[in-house]
Amino acid sequence: MKKVVSAIVLFGLLQTALAQNAAQSVNRDKRMEWWREARFGMFIHWGVYSVPAGYYNGQSIKGIGEWIMNRGKIPVAEYQQFASSFNPVKYDADAWVKLAKDAGMKYIVITAKHHDGFALFKSNASKWNMVDATPYGKDLLTPLAEACRKYGMKLGFYYSQAQDWCNPGGAASKKAASEGWANPDSATIDAYIASHEGHWDPAQTSKTMSQYIDEVAVPQVKELLTNYGDVAVLWWDTPTGMTDEFAEKLNAVLAMQPNIITNDRLKRPNFAGDYKTPEQRIPKESELDGKDWETCMTMNNTWGYKKNDHEWKSAEVMVRNLVDIASKGGNYLMNVGPKDDGTIPAESIARLQQVGAWMKVNGEAIYGTKASPLAAVTWGRITKKEQKDNTILYLSVFNWPADKKLVVPGLTQSVISATLLAGGKKLAAATGKDGLVITVPDQAPDKMATVIKVLVKGKVSDKRFTGTGTSGL
Predict the structure, then answer these.
(1) Backbone phi, psi, residue 245, to 5°
(2) Contact predicate 280/184, CB 8 Å
(3) Any bridge partners for residue 441, and if so which?
(4) From CA 94, how far away is CA 112, in angstroms rounded?
(5) Measured over all CA atoms, what is the biggest interatomic distance in the chain, rounded to whole angstroms?
(6) DSSP string covering 349-382, please?
(7) What is the phi/psi pair of residue 132, to 5°?
(8) Residues 305 and 296: beta-carbon distance below 8 Å
(9) CA–CA separation, 35 and 269 (whole Å)
(10) Scanning 19, 57, 204, 416, which has its CA 20 to 30 A from the CA of 104?
């Protein structure tokens, strides 16, 4: 009888656990719904580092702009003097958000506090903030939050929870882990950071990291989740020196915003967050594991503004990256690095406007789509939507066929229609034993990526295989 009772109790506990897991999965899917629909967002790296803009004592400092304090080993007191020149009188949050919206972006993530410890907001936890340390004297996040509400843009905050080079007790890595690496993965970055910690100013170590977590990090995250309305994303970065105990203190604060989603950089592996964050690279198909992911990427070679970095990606590369990412089921977080006066570089604006023009015509091939169910094609990328009992395939063509025959290998189901998104022209399509063949015009309507919308009868089964991918185009 005891064995029977024990078995019943064990079975009951198992059922309860399964029910809880199912409920958590449903809750997570609900929280992630808007994010999966969005596919495209704006990253903003802005702070005191935009004042030196890559130069220290008249010398150009190698590396990414926001790491200048670390790379130049600038003493805390000396670096903090840059704040006296941080006066972004041309800052127009409304224009920033409208720029993102017109580019087709659905959410914004801004560096509320980067590794230099400077807060873009009024903080009672540290005087090293925009209101108390600069002549501008105003919170930069308040108008941004207001503009996001105005334009229906989701707002997220990047917060450096561990590295902090100015507030005592914060951790410090010797250099940016991903700098100069072609394809760094998250585990490699974490391992590198863990073995390359190093401070350079005694002022940085006058308190313990435990004190820093309790006195600065936790209170500031509470401020961010209290003072700006709904926060869609909390984007952690670099778990240098983090412990599970520290991470749990920060993780617990998230309960203040029940619908918030987080990335995977709080503390691996026990705090995985809601999505993975490959940096400056697009994963290969063979790397994908079914989990949500987001590629963050710069427009040139730096995140924070650096006046001598002129190696800009073209709008074509950005559009094709976006299509490539969507075709693999991911999101694209494209960065801008504003100047110290509050303006976004003209090169960034021009490219975002070009991307926006493409998205205005072809956005339905990106928003709310799922990964391609078909094997990789040589002429471009494919995204998918399900429509009742049928399937929509969006064929984004990068390489226009010279013979005017676009072949989709392996697609043998009946096609209801095939149309160009640009202009709505209907195209002839025929299925055969080798796949679908679409007859296209002589010239591509859009050199960056021409989208053909194909409505297929029934469901298209997954025919993908692990193989080649791309680390950008």
Answers:
(1) -65, -45
(2) yes
(3) none
(4) 17
(5) 83
(6) HHHHHHHHHHHHHHGGGTTT-B--SS---SSEEE
(7) -90, -20
(8) no
(9) 23
(10) 416
Rounded to 10 deg, the angle between the 141-151 and 93-102 helix axes is 40
What are the tokens at 343? 């303006």
**Cα angle value 169/231/166 (rounded, 5°):** 20
Q: Name the 3-class secondary structure at 249.
A: helix
DSSP three-state, residue 346: helix
Secondary structure of 24-53 as H, E, C letters: HHHHHHHHHHHHHHHCEEEEECCCHHHCCC
Residue with tokens 């029910």: 19
Q: Enumerate the β-bridge partners of residue 59.
A: 56
Mode of pairing for the β-strands spanning 55-56 and 107-113? unpaired
Q: How far apart are the first and last CA of the chain?
A: 67
Token couple for 417: 């229609």
Amino acid in position 101: K
Instruction: Read off the pLDDT of residues 222-280 as tens digits, 9 standing for 90 and up.
Output: 999 999 999 999 999 999 999 999 999 999 999 999 999 999 999 999 999 999 999 99
39-365 carries CATH number 3.20.20.80: yes
**Residue whose entry in the numeric block shows the structure tokens 């299925």:** 431
- For the chain, what are the domain ranges? 1-32, 39-365, 380-456
pLDDT tens profile 107-143: 999 999 999 999 999 999 999 999 999 999 999 999 9
Write the pLDDT tens digit of every residue in 71-81. 999 999 999 99
d(CA 52, CA 68): 8
> Which residue do the tokens 């805390």 mark?
76
Indicate the CATH number of 380-456 among 3.90.1150.10, 2.60.40.1180, 3.30.470.20, 3.40.50.300.
Answer: 2.60.40.1180
Strand partners, 450: 397
- The amino acid occupying position 45 is H
Q: Which residue has the tokens 């002022």?
A: 203
Residue with tokens 């002129």: 310
The CA–CA distances, whole Å, from 74 to 83, 126, 198, 200, 205 equal 14, 20, 13, 8, 15
Question: What CA–CA distance (Å, rounded) separates 339 from 347?
Answer: 12
- What residues does 393 pair with on adjacent strands? 384, 454
Residue 187 identity (one-letter amino acid): A
Q: Which two tokens stand for residue 457?
A: 């009868």
Higher pLDDT, residue 352 or 192: 352
| Contact criterion met (CB below 8 Å) for 419 and 453 | yes
